[in-house]
Please model this.
Amino acid sequence: MNMEGALREQMVQLSKSLFDRGFSVGSAGNISAAVEDGLLITPTNSCLGFLDPARITKLDGNGNHVSGDKPSKEIFLHRAFYETRPQTGAVVHLHSTFATALSCLSDTDADDFIPPLTPYVVMRVGPVKLVPYVRPGDERAGDLIRELEGRYAAVLLANHGPVVTGRDLASAVYAAEELEETAKLLVLLRNSPKRMLTAENVDELRAVFGAY
Model:
């Protein structure tokens, strides 16, 4: 099996894992991964739990549809991350429950939406920006990501859900999972006094483990 074939199989496996554990429901969510000559992305209206590797969409480097089913309507969102963050190898967009719940709150810091509650959200996700609402599939979503100029590896789309990037498919999926678990903790602790990591703690984590 060539590298693209192996990546298609990995996309099916990891997507099913997310679906089976409730990180996506129905036909919600979409995942993409970079290949040497373009981009693979889950098809529009497909279910992450039942993907066919042969039907995963392939686009060339200019965004032209090469093979597979029609691409996800959120393709503009994905392409904007690849264009502004050259180190991006994969993008995961979910409607996971707790991260989406946070994206609906109005009393939060849009520039640092997920505070440093645990070391792993610092190490695997980093700062998270809240992006203003546009309807799903609107090309303006890509423009909003481009305006960030690659400063964020993860964002929350207001009233919609998280978009998380990684250097490869596995790391992007793991970061999306970490974001959802941190969002769950924040919801559970919302009305309780919280002990966040200090700026010194965060600096140490970034110095020791690096930051994507």
Summary: The longest helix spans residues 169-188. The longest strand covers residues 30-35.
